[in-house]
C-alpha cells in the first residue's frame, strides 16, 4: 500500500479519505502519514545496516512533536540547529546521546543547554565558535565532543538558496583551513575531537556532488591521521533529494552503498542528517477553493492556503503537485492557485490544468518537509492545523492557531502614556 493513493477517484492517506479530514479539521491543514515517515526513516536505518553510525533526522524539516516522537520510538537520532529544537527532541522522548548540533550561530546559552543535556556532538562551523565552545565547556567542567563542519567547495547543483557547500556560502570552515583548526581544537580545553562533518546542500538528485565532497573529506581524514588527530566518525549531513515532479534521486541504499564503498579500510562510523527525504513525501497540505476568478488574462483560483502556510513556491519557485482530493467531471482549465495574502508572490501553484469549482478541496503534495516549519503569521493568519494519520485513525497533533495564540505576549501601552 502507498501511504497516499487514490481509490475510486478519492485520495486517501493510509485508510483515511483526505476529504474527511478536511471536513473534520477544516482547511488549510497539513496531513502526515505515520507509515510514510516510518518507511522513509527505516530506508536509512536499514541501508546503514550494521555499519556503526547514526541516522539523525534533521528536525528543521518537520519538527512536530508527534513526528519527532514516532521517529524517536524507531530509534532515530536528531540533528538540531537551536535550543528550541533540542527542547522539542527532549519533550518528544528523543535520546540526547543521539543528538548532533549543527548551525553557524549557536549562542553560549544554547551551548550550555546542549552540554547539560549531554548531546552526542557539536558540529562546529567557525573558529570563533570553537573558542567559545571550549570556554563554555571548561566553565561547566564538561567536555564537548566536536566535529568540524568543513565547506568542501563543491557545487551541489541545486537551487542557489539551498546550496551550502560552496566557498561563497556562510556554512562551515574552508576545507583548506581545517587542518589548522583541528590542531587548535586538539589543544583547547573542554573539547574532544570526534568527527568530521559536511552538508553541501539540499534536494540533491545526483550522487556525484556527494562523492566529490566525500573524497575531499577522506583526504583530510588521512592527512589528520598523519598528524595524530584521529577522526572517529564522518557526518555527511542531509541533502538527498525527493521526487516532487519528475526528479529521480538515487535510492537511499545506492547512496549509502556508494559511501561505504569509498571508505576503504578506514574505521569510520557514519552519521547522516536527512530531513527532506524523510519528511517531504510523508505529508500534504489540504486547502479549499474559496472563489474562482476567471479574467481575460488569467484564471485565478483563490484558495485558503497561502504563502504563509507554505512559502516554498514563493521563495524558491518550487513546484509541488496540487490535485483535487475528490475527482469530479467539469471543464479542465489552466489556473493560478493563489492565496488570500496581500502579496503578488502569494501562490501555491501556477498554470495548473484542473477542473475546479468553488468549495473543492485540493491537496498540495510532497508538503511534509519545510512546510509547516517555515509557516508564519503574516497577514495575521493563524498557522494551519496538523494531523497525523495512523492506519484508519486521524489524530490532531497541532491545533489550528487561534487569534489568542497569535496575540499571546502582545500588549498595548497603558492609558497614561
Ligand atoms: C546542517 C544540515 N543538516 C541537514 C539538513 C537537512 O537537509 P535535507 O532536508 O536536504 O536532508 C540541513 C538542511 O539543508 C542542514 O543545514
Ligand atoms: N527550506 C528549504 C531547504 C533548506 C534546507 C535547510 N538547510 C526547502 O524548502 O527546500
TrEMBL record:
<dbReference type="GO" id="GO:0009089">
    <property type="term" value="P:lysine biosynthetic process via diaminopimelate"/>
</dbReference>
<feature type="active site" description="Proton donor">
    <location>
        <position position="342"/>
    </location>
</feature>
<dbReference type="InterPro" id="IPR029066">
    <property type="entry name" value="PLP-binding_barrel"/>
</dbReference>
<comment type="pathway">
    <text>Amino-acid biosynthesis; L-lysine biosynthesis via DAP pathway; L-lysine from DL-2,6-diaminopimelate: step 1/1.</text>
</comment>
<dbReference type="GO" id="GO:0008836">
    <property type="term" value="F:diaminopimelate decarboxylase activity"/>
</dbReference>
<keyword id="KW-0663">Pyridoxal phosphate</keyword>
<feature type="binding site">
    <location>
        <position position="343"/>
    </location>
    <ligand>
        <name>substrate</name>
    </ligand>
</feature>
<feature type="binding site">
    <location>
        <position position="316"/>
    </location>
    <ligand>
        <name>substrate</name>
    </ligand>
</feature>
<dbReference type="InterPro" id="IPR022653">
    <property type="entry name" value="De-COase2_pyr-phos_BS"/>
</dbReference>
<dbReference type="Pfam" id="PF00278">
    <property type="entry name" value="Orn_DAP_Arg_deC"/>
</dbReference>
<feature type="binding site">
    <location>
        <position position="276"/>
    </location>
    <ligand>
        <name>substrate</name>
    </ligand>
</feature>
<comment type="function">
    <text>Specifically catalyzes the decarboxylation of meso-diaminopimelate (meso-DAP) to L-lysine.</text>
</comment>
<feature type="modified residue" description="N6-(pyridoxal phosphate)lysine">
    <location>
        <position position="60"/>
    </location>
</feature>
<keyword id="KW-0028">Amino-acid biosynthesis</keyword>
<feature type="binding site">
    <location>
        <position position="370"/>
    </location>
    <ligand>
        <name>pyridoxal 5'-phosphate</name>
    </ligand>
</feature>
<comment type="subunit">
    <text>Homodimer.</text>
</comment>
<dbReference type="InterPro" id="IPR000183">
    <property type="entry name" value="Orn/DAP/Arg_de-COase"/>
</dbReference>
<dbReference type="InterPro" id="IPR002986">
    <property type="entry name" value="DAP_deCOOHase_LysA"/>
</dbReference>
<feature type="binding site">
    <location>
        <position position="239"/>
    </location>
    <ligand>
        <name>pyridoxal 5'-phosphate</name>
    </ligand>
</feature>
<feature type="domain" description="Orn/DAP/Arg decarboxylase 2 N-terminal">
    <location>
        <begin position="37"/>
        <end position="280"/>
    </location>
</feature>
<keyword id="KW-0456">Lyase</keyword>
<dbReference type="Pfam" id="PF02784">
    <property type="entry name" value="Orn_Arg_deC_N"/>
</dbReference>
<dbReference type="InterPro" id="IPR022657">
    <property type="entry name" value="De-COase2_CS"/>
</dbReference>
<feature type="binding site">
    <location>
        <begin position="273"/>
        <end position="276"/>
    </location>
    <ligand>
        <name>pyridoxal 5'-phosphate</name>
    </ligand>
</feature>
<feature type="domain" description="Orn/DAP/Arg decarboxylase 2 C-terminal">
    <location>
        <begin position="30"/>
        <end position="368"/>
    </location>
</feature>
<dbReference type="GO" id="GO:0030170">
    <property type="term" value="F:pyridoxal phosphate binding"/>
</dbReference>
<comment type="similarity">
    <text>Belongs to the Orn/Lys/Arg decarboxylase class-II family. LysA subfamily.</text>
</comment>
<dbReference type="InterPro" id="IPR022643">
    <property type="entry name" value="De-COase2_C"/>
</dbReference>
<feature type="binding site">
    <location>
        <position position="312"/>
    </location>
    <ligand>
        <name>substrate</name>
    </ligand>
</feature>
<protein>
    <recommendedName>
        <fullName>Diaminopimelate decarboxylase</fullName>
        <ecNumber>4.1.1.20</ecNumber>
    </recommendedName>
</protein>
<dbReference type="InterPro" id="IPR022644">
    <property type="entry name" value="De-COase2_N"/>
</dbReference>
<dbReference type="InterPro" id="IPR009006">
    <property type="entry name" value="Ala_racemase/Decarboxylase_C"/>
</dbReference>
<keyword id="KW-0457">Lysine biosynthesis</keyword>
<feature type="binding site">
    <location>
        <position position="370"/>
    </location>
    <ligand>
        <name>substrate</name>
    </ligand>
</feature>
<keyword id="KW-0210">Decarboxylase</keyword>
